[in-house]
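Holo prediction — iron/sulfur cluster.
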Amino acid sequence: MKRRVFSGARPTGRQHLGNFLGAIQNYVNLQDEYDCVYCIVDVHALTSLEDTGGLQKNINEMVLDWLAAGLDPRKSILFVQSHIPEVMELHTLLSMITPLGWLLRVPTFKEKARLQPENINYGLVGYPVLMTADIVLYKGEFIPVGEDQLPHIELAREIARRFNNLFGYTFPEPEAKLTLFPLILGLDGKEKMSKQVGNDIDISLSDKETTERVMTAVTDPARRYRNDPGHPEICNIYRLQQYFNPFGLDNIGEQCRTAKIGCVDCKMLLAQEINSTLKPFRERRAALAEKPGYLVDVLADGAQRARAIAKETLKEVKQKMGLL
Ligand code: SF4
């Protein structure tokens, strides 16, 4: 029997290169070896989203990107978190066994509280409990994450362990499965690529739009004139070249150090490689966008399959806690 992978992603709409390299490609690669459960965690988005008007559009755009990138609904379960009410119930039950101190020390809570001091809501504190409920409801064993998510996984393990100690073995302790490319920096070369920061390149952009975005990227700040030798090791364009142009990397590095290539040409090269890598994805996406009914069917089928697992787990949990 295949072991289970679970992953949840917030509905951020059209996916960017960071999502593609750091998460989606990994999701696709895991499908054959594992029993994969992939969830769009729309309730999590409410902890910081003031305007929920774009939520459904964001979910649809994201699922389109996932499917076009190769997620196969015949192999994996793709669904939306709020379509499974059992997760809310499990969240409440797990919150009864989770000490508040564990939640208040989570680094991302402190960071979120700093970023939105006017909206430090209860859901923000309980975010890791809901995340644990997401994982253990489907008895997820491996969680593909970037390094920044490790404290959440550790907390999920602690909550699962505590439940097992109190009520008998029920949940596998989820293990982080670090992605191959854990951190993709944005066009500013400083922060993780993110829509919120505005330093991203959406994978569904046209060739022209992609090229324009690449041209805005910060490169080696010491290279002020075309004849200045560059330092590729500190340049984010060079880092991106390693994903999209791995065979040309040594050559570009050498040409940069000896000022034989300028940053504009180097960026053009990168944009061409990104566009040629994403060409099949973009064609599939355009075809899928013509069939909105298919998207609805995929999510309905995913919810049905996810709910069957969720109901079983919740029944077991309630029995063990003395509620049934
Ligand atoms: Fe970066 Fe390329 Fe410019 Fe060198 S030539 S600094 S690698 S963009």
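READOUT: Residues 219-220, 223, 230, 232, 235, 237-238, 256, 261, 263, 266-267 surround iron/sulfur cluster (CB under 6 Å).
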